[in-house]
Amino acid sequence: MPYVYLAIPLAPLLGAIIAGLFGRQIGRAGAHWVTIIGVAVSFALSLWVFKHIVLDGAPVYNEAVYTWMATDAFRFEVGFLVDNLTALMMVVVTGVSLMVHIYTIGYMHDDPGYQRFFSYISLFTFSMLMLVMANNFMQLFFGWEAVGLVSYLLIGFWFKRESAIFANLKAFLVNRVGDFGFLLGIAAVLMYTGSLDYMAVFGQADQLAATTIEVLPGTEWNLVTVIAILLFIGAMGKSAQVPLHVWLPDSMEGPTPISALIHAATMVTAGIFMVARMSPLYELSEVALSLVVVLGALTAFFMGLLGIVQNDIKRVVAFSTLSQLGYMTVALGVSAYSAAIFHLMTHAFFKALLFLAAGSVIVALHHEQDMRKMGGLYKYMPVTFVTFLVGTLALIGFPGFAGFFSKDAIIESVHASSIPGAGLAYWLVLLGVFVTAFYSFRMFFLVFFGEERMDDHARAHLHESPRVVTVPLVLLAIPSAIIGWIAIEPLVFGDFFAGAITVAPEHDVVGEVGHHYHGQWSFILHAFQAPALWLALGGVATAWFIYMVRPSIATAARERLGFLHALLDRGYGFDEFNNQVFARGTLALGRGLSSQGDARVIDGWLVNGAARLVGWGARVVRHVQTGMMYHYAFVMIAGLLVFMTWFMFA
Amino acid sequence: MFTDWPLLSLVIWLPIIGGVFTLLTGDKSPAATRRIALFTAVLTFLLSLPLYFQFDPGTAAMQFQELAPWIATFNIHYHLGVDGISMPLVILTTFTTILVVIAGWEVIDYRLSQYMAAFLIMEGMMVGTFAALDSILFYFFFEGMLIPMYLIIGIWGGPRRVYATIKFFIYTFLGSVFMLVALIYMYFQGGSFAILDLHALPLGLTEQILIFFAFLIAFAVKVPMWPVHTWLPDAHVEAPTGGSVILAAIMLKIGGYGFLRFSLPVTPDASAALDWLIIAMSLIAIVYIGMVALAQRDMKKLVAYSSISHMGFATLGMFAVFAILDNPANDGTGAVLALEGAMVQMVSHGFISGALFLVIGVLYDRMHTREISAYGGVANTMPWFATLAVVFAMANAGLPGTSGFVGEFMVILASFKANFWIAFTAALTLIIGAAYTLWMIKRVIFGAIANEQVAGLSDLNAREAINLGVLAVLVIGLGVWPNPLLEVMHATLDNLVAHVATGKI
Question: Residue B298 pairs with which residues in a beta bridge?
């Protein structure tokens, strides 16, 4: 068995190394074959592990692979923990990755960096697997930063573009802000438990909760709260929660396949996964959970609003990703971890689908991303159109589709929760449903219906994408449609996560919601009596009315509400603020320290000043050496007199 | 085999003799000079390897010892030996010298034999510094290595080399004079210059504090620590590539080594009393110097400041030990972690900073400028070079899976055991270090081709590729599996922690 677990991450790594180092020798086809085989092996083995662990009920696997280092009283190991949560994540990661690999053959067909791209996405698959399979914090951090590295490389894949290399630097640095907190959280864990092994740490969770530390003088903080918040800062970076969300919209500078794989389906959900994995710690801190709920709800609603004013198709999907990550975070905050992971899974499928379908549109229009130059595409691209519709319906939570089950589970859980902040969160996630439906169908109508706004040249060349593109779309559309129906019962209301996720009895909102659960049909029927579904339908109807029936409304609203539009268009000014205060401020501080602190004070006054002082002293003393014999004689006689006087009277 | 060979003497004197020999051959046949130099460097490296493979990790005692009287009147001996602190640094030195010889291969076009000789002689001196167990012998090598470095910068350096060399020389020389006074004082107290005797020499707190400051001046300049760091950027900017590599990879480590060999064991109580001072200076180095690095326009200056910032982790780890031992909330673990973190940081910084200076050298050899603004889009014309540059940049930014992560990680973890805010400040490097390193990469490596010159660049030649490739393997290898390096240190550093925890008064 250990070899199977080892092979799962190493197969894509091997593919990445071969495609990366020997790309020229093996050629384009060689590069995609070697990486696709690597990921396919990984996917097949993941399925087998899923069957082994989940379906056959094999015991949880938790073993070290090797000792990374042993020092002091500590052992740092690289090892795997494979339970139901891990097995599910492995299947999702490798499955979506495989689809994206295949799709890339079509999408990157003409790109000169073809081999490099395959190498990167395989390397990403390796990193993400290391992250989800980790059985300790050190390896988690390794995977965490490694996916950040690949994200950096892929956002800046087209490194000639100034906007791309700006975006990748920004993404890396913003993530580093999160990692800064994350690392401190890990340090705190090691300090107080003496171990970084999950099971050893969770075993001591109760002692941690009974400990307080003085972070600021005079204030006692509960240790678990401190650890949970520090770790969550890491999650805020990776999973793009306000205010560390700013990198995600810009990450759309990367090629579309990676927007699907990394910036929608897998990497950005690492923070969600991490918090779920750490549930034994989070359950012990209501303060941390409240913070999670509130930040998640703010992200879910306010980032959704930004999706309304975007004209770039990828940016609409990006903001919807931000908003959906907010939903998952809210679920974590109300201790509905299973609902969060459920939404993570459905979202991985339908958001990867939406991105890939958007990519299909973009390629068909010769890399045009502006929706104002699209329209009426349903005629030209039937497969893309249908799959896109499936993805959109799943996203807005249309009854029966995957997103419906997961989002409703979250909303019901928030409704049932009594954690501080859940009341506010409930309103925000409800309104968010309307917003989601509105921007999603705005995009849908603008792209596939209405006037054909592209130029004649583009229209003449319009056609459906090749098989390598459409097959992954169809394969992703199937789970986007049905996975919710299949999975809700075992995943959310069953005991799928028993042992992997801990929920304190007083936080068990999912259990409470589960009492009213009597099968999928009743779940759907129940939705008709709750506001969320009507809000979603309202959003669709509004979008239809504004963009299909009376387009003048949109223009008018934009003019009337110019202030609001400007606010949304600038993303509430986060970017400007960060640029002015953090980027420029730090740089100005650095320049000041360099020119004033180092050059002027230390070098100018102290170092060269000391040299000048010596020089000045030498010049003064030099005057004494006049070379005149009578000067010397005079000084000698005077000195002699002084000494004699001193000796006689002392 | 090898066990009865005087390995340390061989590793010290072989390169010095080889260097003198190179010098004698003159510049008639540069090809022969190169071959002799490379042969000497490789042979020395191979001879240093048994130091690792036959090292007994189970003991804190000195190994491979050699002892002979030198100046009997003052009880001064030619006494050599290595433990878990010095042995890795000796091998780092012999390894780095090979890189430097290769890096200077055809780049140095005048006085080649003298150039190679200077590096070989310096290699012997540096190994001697690490291996000396007599403090006068240590002092001899410690000062002696300044001369070849002075010549390297002064002869093969850039336009402001005279200012830089004088600054470098006076700074480091001035620092070490105080150390000599301290050593002589202790000789009068205990009648011995043997370092291990100094470790055991009883000293009162006042004496210890004075001696501590004498050592501090000597070693802080070498590391260099803020605020006595300003010689380093100037020296780096003027030095030829090889000089920068040795300076960053080895010479700075001698300061850190001095703290471990002298300050901590000889003056443990003073170190404990003044740990806050060194911790504060280290944290300033990490944050202040990191910000200064951000503002640099010259690549070498940027990497020089980055070196100072990274060495801040080494000194932080060394002195956080005392804060960890003092912290009542702590269970007593973490001190060894801090020290080993400092050691790993020094070795890793040897690889990474050496690699970064080689990277800059590759560009400088082609374009004869180090200004960041003169570049842009290098990845378009030099893809392999760009790949390796990004690897080293990521290592410099402390990415897990590279050696740059290991030391920083260990020191940050350990300093949390001292105090939350120390860890907090140190961890800021995650952001600052990534910012200055990757911003430079963005401006130099990525982007559209900036000008004609960049458009005409050719990718790495075999010589450069070997140098950087080997370093990349080491940087990643140490990041993926640091244990082989750590294993040899445990006994020595456990012993050191026990020694400083006991103290002398």
Answer: B371
Q: Binning pLDDT at 50, 70 and 90, where does residue B484 land?
A: very high
Strand partners, A62: A81
DSSP B110: S
Range 162-221 of A in CB contact (< 8 A) with B: 162, 165-166, 169, 172-173, 176-177, 179-180, 183-184, 186-188, 190-191, 194, 213, 215
Nearest to A103, CA basis, from A267, A255, A312: A255
Give the pLDDT band (50/70/90) at residue A571.
confident
Structure token digits, residue A128: 């993400």
The answer to whether A602 contacts chain B (CB < 8 Å) is: yes
Residue A529: predicted pLDDT: 87
3 state DSSP class of A567: helix
pLDDT per residue as tens digits for the range A136-167: 999 999 999 999 999 999 999 999 989 999 99
Residue A498, beta-bridge partner list? A501
Using CB atoms, pick whichever of B294, B377, B431 lies closest to residue A180.
Answer: B431
A145–chain B Cβ distance below 8 A for any pair: yes
| Rounded Cα gap, residues B189 and A606, in angstroms | 35
| Residue A312 three-state SS | strand
Angle A337-364/A467-487 helices, nearest 10 degrees?
Answer: 160
Neighboring chain A residues of B334 at a CB cutoff of 8 Å: 72, 191
Compute the half-sphere exposure of residue A512: CA atoms within 13 Å on the CB side of its CA: 19
Nearest to B361 by CA among B392, B397, B332: B392
For chain B, the C-alpha Rg in angstroms (whole number) is 22
H runs (alpha helix) in A239-283 = 247-250, 256-260, 270-277, 279-282
pLDDT (tens digit per residue) in B458-483: 899 999 999 999 999 999 999 999 99
Element (H, E) at A165: helix A162-193
Share of chain B above pLDDT 70, in %: 99
ipTM score for this prediction: 0.92
Q: Minimal Cα–Cα distance from B290 to chain A, Å?
A: 8
Residue found by looking up tokens 């001369």 in the block: B147
Nearest C-alpha of chain A: how many angstroms from B16?
34
Note the Cα B152 to chain centre separation in Å.
Answer: 17
Interface test with B, best of A13, A68, A69 (most B CBs within 10 A): A69
Res A601: pLDDT? 80
Task: Tell whether B175 is within 8 A of chain A (Cβ).
Answer: no
Tell which A residues from 15 to 74 touch B, by Cβ distance under 8 Å.
66-74
* Distance between CA atoms of residues A321 and A304, nearest Å: 9
Instruction: With beta carbons under 8 A apart, name residues in chain B contacting A190.
Output: 413, 416
**pLDDT digits 0-9 by tens, A457-499:** 888 888 888 888 999 999 999 999 999 998 888 888 888 888 8
Query: Which amino acid type is present at position A118?
Result: F
What CA–CA distance (Å, rounded) separates B420 from B418? 7
Contacts 24+ apart (CB under 8 A), A591-599: A591/B295, A593/B288, A593/B291, A593/B292, A593/B295, A594/B291, A594/B292, A594/B295, A594/B296, A595/B295, A597/B288, A597/B292, A598/B230, A598/B292
With beta carbons under 8 A apart, name residues in chain A contacting B481: 66, 68-69
Residues of chain B in contact with residue A145, where contact means CB-CB under 8 angstroms, are 399-401, 405
Dist. CA B343–CA B410, nearest whole Å: 10
Task: Using a CB–CB cutoff of 8 Å, tell me whether B379 touches chain A.
Answer: yes
Which residue carries 């990004």 as its tokens? B390
DSSP-derived 3-state class of residue A81: strand
Tokens describing residue A524:
């759907």
**Average pLDDT of the residues in A276-280:** 93
Chain-chain contact of A165 with B427 (C-beta, under 8 angstroms): no
Q: What is the DSSP code (8-state) at residue A221?
A: E
